Amino acid sequence: MWLEIICGLIIYRLYRCFFCDDDDVLDVETSDSKALFSVGERLVKIYGGKVYAGLRIPDADTATPQNIDLVLVSKGEAVVIAVKNFSGLISVNPDGSWVCEGYSKRKTEHHPDPVAETKKQASILESYLEQRGVALPEGYLSCKVILSNPKVCTIQSSNFPSEVVTHDQWLQLKPEPKSMFSGWIKGAFHSGKKEMQESIHQKLNFILSTAPMWDRLELKGNKYVLGEFLEFKGKQEDVEALRNIKRSKISRLVVQKTSMLGFAPSRLQVLYSPRDYRSEGASGSEWKEVTVRSSTEVLFQPESSDKLRKFKLSSIVSMSLSA
Fold first, then answer.
1. C-alpha span between 96 and 98 (Å, rounded)
2. What domain range is 168 assigned to?
3. Based on the domain organization, do 119 and 172 belong to the same domain?
């Protein structure tokens, strides 16, 4: 009997080792990050432009980075967006703070005024842009708070500030320019100032593309983790082969399998592109390749956790590094 149990445990471990390569993914709560990127993707589909996620803008008053979920940049406007993945019944207190009561559990959560926080983020971003040489016209920068979770219900939604996009409103957004939220993408300039508009638009995109932000892991199953890449772990020869992947030199890497027939790969191809501030990415000829064991790991510090995490390369789709 004991022999059968031991053999069963051995077979189970071998199965998890060779066929289940997303153990680390299951150990991390990624719903908030997934909601953030899902919102960003939908905004681009609806309004066009570009979305910058996970920014860490320096705050001169506190000398600490200010985290900003999303910044949507389109022609004539930029919007600072906070994505709230709250679930339950939400109401607004007279002082602007929010109360969230869960459905299944008798648990009440209190949150500082998200609109006030987002307006502060917009002010810090505007100051940062001025320091880098871009003074935005009045009304160019606005803010929104999006309730992205379908399991959220707003009590007396009329009490919520106009900057709040409830989940029902979020579902109703459409790509038509005259939709109920067409004010998001309003023209800040007259047609006679088209050159000025394009100049600010280009400078704004360049500054945000080079601004400090969280490193980003894209994991299997359309999951994301924001945080800080620390180092690679594994066999010495694999770590040595990856020595050139540093944030000062590399902006992005992509992990590809080398095996066929659906079996867990013993080795993986890692493609990485050199950092170049003059363009948004490397061309195909600039990508470099290295092959390492699939057991190689990435040591990563998630932004929402005090615990260091190790992710197997086999569970990673890509990794983007901030400058």
1. 7
2. 31-209
3. yes
